[in-house]
Write a structure and sequence with these properties.
mainly beta, Immunoglobulin-like, 2 domains, 5-stranded antiparallel sheet, 4-stranded antiparallel sheet, 12% helix, elongated
Length: 296
């Protein structure tokens, strides 16, 4: 029978702060890790949670995978508050050993915010606007079946920009929904920070402002993509049947978060959209089925 053994405290990569405790960001709970699931006795007797006076602090253990246990406090840790987590080794066949770690909830004095804006670059519409000024007729835009989601390819008769503006339910609106529709997913990752920060993700609508808050001082990178199918993952597209990749962009340089400041990104996150360019029809193609003079 495999013996249950203690593997470490969670989060695992926390250094000590100026008080000697391990700093916890808002929403992050301390935890413990073992090589296998705990039984009731091990949960009850093997892990003890105390305040700095040594008094027990009411809490429970929860797990998603049976080896990593998060400590759920009955009353949440307030900013600046400490808690001691002890693992009794004799309960886990590690006699005469007690593992202890002190955690401290960080205060808002060390936290800042990063704010930015994301927009979809309507490159196709900009091209259409310049082309439509010379158009006296509608433009046919043929979309492959793989893009429209229909059994057959679809041809949209797209009117000039000015005419389309008066008809929000018209064919140009259908085209917009295919190429520009869906929320924008924005992810933040840490380059370096005073307290480790797990990757974060949020969604917003194109053209809106987003904020990542409660960040310790450090350098952060951003990535955004247009989540057209709203599945929470970047879609690389496919060739057959044709489906374009979801537009994606990165911030060129990391941005610094500073305590007690809201720092704005130096430029909007710009998502260029590759959509059909509306071009005027030059008339029907020549009829090549007729015989030329002199041909039999």
């Amino acid at each position: 029978t495999t013996r249950t053994r203690f593997r470490g405290f969670l989060p695992a990569d926390l250094g000590r702060d100026s008080t000697g405790a391990r700093p916890l960001l808002p929403g992050v709970q301390p935890g413990v890790r073992f090589n296998q699931s705990l039984d009731r006795t091990q949960r009850r007797e093997g892990v003890r949670i105390r305040d700095t006076t040594g008094a027990p602090r009411p809490a429970s253990l929860s797990t998603d995978d049976g080896t990593r246990y998060r400590i759920q406090f009955e009353s949440s840790l307030s900013p600046g508050q400490y808690v001691d987590v002890e693992v009794q080794g004799d309960v886990f066949a590690q006699a005469d050993t007690t593992y202890q770690r002190r955690f401290r909830r960080v205060t808002r004095r060390i936290l800042g915010e990063l704010e930015g804006r994301v927009r979809v670059a309507d490159t196709a519409r900009e091209a259409a606007a310049s082309t439509d000024r010379a158009m006296d007729d509608t433009t046919a835009v043929r979309l492959p079946a793989g893009l429209t989601g229909r059994a057959e390819a679809d041809t949209l008769m797209v009117p000039p920009v000015d005419a389309a503006a008066t008809n929000p339910d018209g064919p140009r609106a259908r085209l917009d929904s295919l190429f520009y529709g869906g929320p924008v997913a924005i992810s933040l990752t840490t380059v370096e920070s005073s307290v480790p920060v797990a990757p974060r993700r949020l969604t917003t609508s194109p053209g809106s402002t987003f904020v990542f808050d409660q960040l310790p001082d450090g350098q952060y990178q951003f990535r955004a993509y247009l989540d057209r199918n709203e599945n929470g993952r970047w879609d690389v597209g496919q060739i057959q049947p044709y489906r374009p990749a979801e537009p994606v962009t990165w911030l060129g340089e990391p941005v610094e978060a500073r305590p007690r400041w809201t720092t704005e990104l130096p430029a909007p996150l710009r998502l260029p959209v590759l959509a059909p360019v509306f071009r005027p029809r030059d008339g029907p193609p020549p009829d090549t089925t007729r015989s030329r003079p002199g041909e039999n």
